Amino acid sequence: MSNVYEVIHAPVVTEKSAEAIESDNVYTFIVDRKANKIEISRAVEGIWDVKVRHVRTMQYRGKAKRALMGRLSKNPKLGRRPAFKKAVVQLAEGDHIEFYEVG
User: Fold this and answer.
1) Is the pLDDT score of 99 beyond 90?
2) How many domains does the chain have?
3) DSSP string computed for 59-100
4) I need a surface site. Which of 31, 48, 67, 79 has the fewest CB within 10 A?
5) CATH classification at residue 11
6) What is the rounded CA–CA span in Å between residue 100 and residue 81?
């Protein structure tokens, strides 16, 4: 990938990821499905100027969506949610990322 902003789509902000940030200095992102661990590491280091220790990735298949008025629909298997890739990035000691500016 040529642009670091094409690799990282969005941070995952959940209770579990907030707890991982506080306890283990681990951040979770939704990334491009074609990006590998090296590209993800370079993108995080380039955008936030931090040092990455580990990168773990997970592929998620899109779940089937139910049709509106499921039983009354002519084709009950209408759609799927999009598939995505999630990256769990552990930073070096002393580094942190500010997602939201306070004040």
Assistant:
1) no
2) 1
3) EEPPPEEPPTTGGGSS-S--EEPPPEEEEEEEEPTT----SS
4) 79
5) 3.30.70.330
6) 28
Give me the domain span that covers residue 24: 4-91
- In a domain, residue 11? The reply is yes
pLDDT at 2 (0 to 100): 73
User: What is the per-residue pLDDT across 4-56, written as a single tens digit (0 to 9) for each?
Assistant: 999 999 999 999 999 999 999 999 999 999 999 999 999 999 999 999 999 99
Residue 78: per-residue pLDDT: 67
> Is residue 58 assigned to a domain?
yes
> What token pair was written down for 1?
């990938």
Element (H, E) at 8: strand 8-11
